[in-house]
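[STRUCTURE TOKENS]
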Amino acid sequence: MASHVRASDLRAAARLATSATLQTTRIVEGVHQSVWRTLGAPDGDQPDRTRGLTGLVYRCVNGITQAVGTGLDIALARLEPLLGAMDAAPPDSPARLAVLAALNGVMGDRLLADANPLALPMTLQFDGRTIDPDAPPPADAVGGRLLLLVHGLCMNDRQWQTWRTAADGSLQPGLDHGQALAQAQGFTPLYLRYNTGRHVCDNGRELSALLQRLLAAWPVPVDELVVVAHSMGGLVTRSAVHQAQQAGQAWPARLTRIVFLGTPHHGAPLERAGNWVDVLLGSTPWSAPFGRLARLRSSGITDLRHGNLLAADGAGHDRFQRRADRRLPVPLPAGVACLAVAATLAGRRSRVADRLLGDGLVPLRSALGRHDEPARALAFGPHAQVIVYRTGHMQLLGDPAVGHIVCDWLAQGPAARH
């Protein structure tokens, strides 16, 4: 693992350690004050902070931690030039990217707010290279049919080719949908890399601006733009299109088709369960301080509770508070053919399996855009809803059968795609 570590990672890790120590101290102090409160001791200026000599001790611990953290940051910044040999390894090695992607998914919003170097910027990748959206692309990337692949939560662009379990139980290399469609239909595959811990609306807005710049600088006319999005990537895509249309941007006119692979259009049960943990931990004075641990999960994760797309969906309230779905209905983009591919671990359809099992993370109804309220239901055509059985959420990334479904649908005429 050491070969995957860069010099700048040491500073980032030191900042994370400092932040973790401060958070842990706050939790301990909160428990301490809860105990004092049950014995009749008065609260301090804040309900979870202690008073007097005890409060002074905790403030000293926090002050020393911040001072040590600042000193480490300054020292490591001076040492970075001397540790340059650590950066000899490729900065985008799969192992390093996988760790960074997972970390960004869990707490990417906090990393960004702290200006931590581990926060992933949004970039476009082609053949393992970062593309400057304002400059001419590499010669082998130039084409008039662009395919954008958008990954999901805690993932990165290198994980479109995953391992799959064969019929004999062995692990086999999965299918890279981007490369398969490039070979079969002549697309130029571009892979988005982004910080999945940010709000979906923030990633959508940045993606919209990125595509506007890319198409403006593209050296040949773009005849069509197709998006293949997995999981959260589908929400980011829908948010980007909606915000671009509201802003009058030009690039959505080139968007012809979107493929959604296991997208939680109406949320995912795991985040709703996480929201119940917030409620339960806050129900007693003894457990309330531990609610800070549950609240460390990122904005991107909490957006998955209902499938938020817009800033207005979460405006005016604490994102950890339990409340009903108040999203503004956002239909599928007009004039764009959309395909929903939903997976289920079950061998056949059943009411219980559809609602409780799904693909292990996303229920079938959510992946197919179905909703009890007509205004929220997404109008996928009868031939644009496909269910794959005995398939898990992550298998959608590299399953050859899914690849054939996507390839066949993209090859059909406009009428057959609806």
Summary: The beta strands are 123-126, 129-131, 145-150, 163-165, 171-173, 188-193, 224-230, 255-261, 337-344, 385-389. The first strand starts at residue 123 and ends at 126.
